[in-house]
Automatic annotation (TrEMBL):
SUPFAM superfamilies: CheY-like, Homeodomain-like, P-loop containing nucleoside triphosphate hydrolases, PYP-like sensor domain (PAS domain). It holds the Pfam family AAA_lid_14. It comes from Desulfotignum phosphitoxidans DSM 13687. It comes from the Bacteria. The modification 4-aspartylphosphate is found at D53. Keywords: ATP-binding, DNA-binding, Nucleotide-binding, Phosphoprotein, Transcription, Transcription regulation. One of its GO terms (molecular function) is ATP binding. This is Nitrogen fixation protein AnfA.
Length: 572
């Protein structure tokens, strides 16, 4: 890069001497014999170093120096004088002259001073460059600091808050003037945010690693927030820590969306993403915190017990017991004692007092499965519990209070039972305050892949296996099959396959025969419908040398259909 020097002096010999010495050292030297010429040159050409005589006719070198400084020109000025005096020298230095030379000036001095001036200029330029870069970085950082969606707060080593961006102020709910320059201990009581781990660690003088926490911030209106806090030590390069910076990301919305998404596929122990299951989930939610009696209906194996469990566990009763009883499994007497308990001596084997299920479920919920199988006498007692919230133990006339939510279920048509006089109508309406009908699996086949995956996971962990999937044919069959036993049947089919499958994929060969045969039956029905002449059948049999399996295959029908056609034609 060109190094430019301007020599301003009215003495030509001086200008000549500077020019000849410096040109040989590869400096580009310009000359000016007076102040005005010098001004012209420094405004039209960048000068790195200016040597100027102090005496320049009507103006002097000090005026030139003043001009350079006023215009903030980027050059080093050295004053030269033939008549040194302390006052001008000190004035020159005060105004920012780099040096002050006294004539006569020899070559050595010119070269040495020029080199020093250039070294000084290089350093000054570097300093200016660094300063400009710093300003640029600082401006950018401040813009980032202001605009990011994360709260940022920095604290010094004494836990005094040095800075906080506007997002942080918003998250903490504390105005900037109450935050900046305050010690953490002074403001920690104002927001639960400051009670979290990173801030506690700062107060205790530790550095804390990145972690996730959920906290409720001071402004109650805003409610629970899921905040991810990250803290890092602020260190100078290789130096000691000068404080801590904590960043806070608000993930409330993300967490809510995640939860929603999960709920769509699963609700408590219920699996299913179909619209019908979404509707069930919504109903369960609205039923959870009301105390009404619920009647759950639906075919066997549709998940009625799981629904009852979800109603109980989703509500405020969840901390109290959830007691289940299958009413069809017990004789009338046993059921009565099981439901209401008995006292010692109530019957021959009653050797002591025994609490019934209603007592055990106190403040919680009781699930009465197969309610349609209950005898008229027990129906009457249940009606009393529902109406009066009271019951008596067998062998004791003292009524006991019942604070139990009743959830009943049946796969029977209770209305038909009422018609036949087998079920009390008044009990039916007491039970059916809200009816929840669980759809059979065939009406929500989009849940089948999800349920299949769920049961594979379940049996993998139960039997310590590593089965990955079912084949396309299996899934296809599952989607078409009518599942009379509903989810329970699917669960059992997969458990059956776990026994037979020794690899990683469940195929048709591993499934229960009745499910596979249901497919063959369907295919046979389809094939049977296609017209096929008796001649064609006989020809196929002859070609297959009367091997029925091969002939059926050649005709594209199943063996049973072929056999039926042969029988019809008297071929067997
Ligand atoms: N939606 C579902 N998600 C996961 N598992 C389910 C689901 N529905 C049913 N099951 C499972 O199927 C089996 C039968 O469920 P459950 O006992 O709740 O059915 P149910 O309708 O009460 O049957 P039943 O009328 O015969 O008493 C259970 O092992 C249960 O875990």
């Amino acid at each position: 890069m060109e190094k430019t020097v301007l020599i301003v002096d009215d003495e030509e010999s001086i200008r000549f001497a500077f020019k000849s010495f410096l040109s040989r050292q590869n400096y580009t030297v310009f000359e000016a014999r007076d102040f005005n010429r010098a001004l012209e040159m420094i405004s039209s050409q960048t000068m790195d170093v200016v040597f100027s005589d102090i005496v320049l006719n009507e103006y002097n070198g000090i005026d030139l120096l003043r001009h350079v400084k006023e215009q903030r020109l980027d050059c080093v000025v050295i004053m030269i004088t033939g008549q040194p005096d302390v006052e001008t020298a000190s004035q020159a230095v005060r105004l920012g002259a780099f040096d002050y030379l006294v004539k006569p000036i020899d070559k050595e001095m010119i070269l040495k001073t020029t080199k020093m001036a250039f070294d000084f200029k290089t350093l000054t330029d570097e300093k200016i460059k660094i300063r400009r870069e710093n300003i640029h970085i600082r401006t950018n950082l401040e813009a980032v600091f202001r605009s990011v969606n994360e709260g940022i707060i920095s604290l010094d080593r004494e836990a005094k808050i040095v800075n906080a961006n506007s997002r942080m102020i918003d998250l903490s709910g504390i105005p900037a003037h109450d935050l900046i320059n305050k010690h953490l201990s002074e403001i920690r009581h104002r927001s639960l945010l400051f009670e979290t781990k990173p801030f506690k660690a700062i107060l205790e003088g530790q550095e804390s690693p990145s972690f996730q926490t959920c906290c409720r911030i001071a402004d109650d209106v805003k409610g629970d927030k899921t905040l991810v806090l990250n803290s890092a030590s602020l260190v100078d390069k290789d130096g000691p820590s000068i404080g801590t910076v904590v960043t806070i990301r608000d993930e409330t919305r993300l967490t809510a969306l995640e939860t929603q998404l999960k709920e769509r596929y699963r609700f408590h122990k219920l699996i299913g993403k179909s619209q019908k299951m979404q509707h069930i989930y919504q109903l369960i939610e609205s039923l959870s915190n009301v105390d009404t009696t619920v009647l759950i209906t639906g075919e066997s194996g549709t998940g009625k017990e799981l629904v009852a469990g979800a109603i109980h566990h989703n509500g405020t009763k969840a901390i109290h017991p959830f007691v289940c009883l299958n009413c069809s499994a017990l004789s009338e007497n046993l059921l009565e004692s099981e439901l209401f308990g008995h006292v010692k001596g109530a019957f021959t084997s009653a050797v002591g007092n025994r609490a019934g299920r209603f007592q055990k479920a106190q403040n919680g919920s009781i699930f009465l499965d197969e309610i349609g199988d209950v005898s008229p006498a027990i129906q009457l007692k249940l009606l009393r519990v529902l109406q009066e919230k009271k019951f008596e133990r067998v062998g004791d006339a003292t009524p006991l209070d019942s604070n139990v939510r009743v959830i009943a279920a049946t796969n029977k048509d209770l209305k038909a039972l009422i018609h036949k006089g087998l079920f009390r109508e008044d009990l039916y309406y007491r039970l059916k305050v809200v009816e929840l009908r669980i759809p059979p699996l065939r009406e929500r086949s989009e849940d089948i892949p999800l349920l299949t995956e769920h049961f594979i996971d379940h049996f993998n962990s139960k039997f310590n296996r590593r089965i990955k999937e079912v084949t396309h044919e299996v899934l296809d069959l599952f989607m078409k099959y009518s599942w009379p036993g509903n989810v329970r049947e699917l669960e059992h089919a997969i458990e059956h396959a776990f026994v037979l499958c020794s690899g990683f994929t469940i195929s048709l060969a591993h499934l229960p025969l009745d499910i596979v045969q249901s497919r063959e039956k369907t295919e046979c029905c389809i094939l049977k419908a296609s017209p096929m002449s008796d001649d064609q059948i006989v020809r196929a049999l002859e070609e297959a040398r009367w091997n029925k399996t091969r002939a059926a295959k050649a005709l594209g029908i199943c063996r049973q259909t072929l056999y039926r056609r042969m029988k019809k034609n008297g071929l067997v």
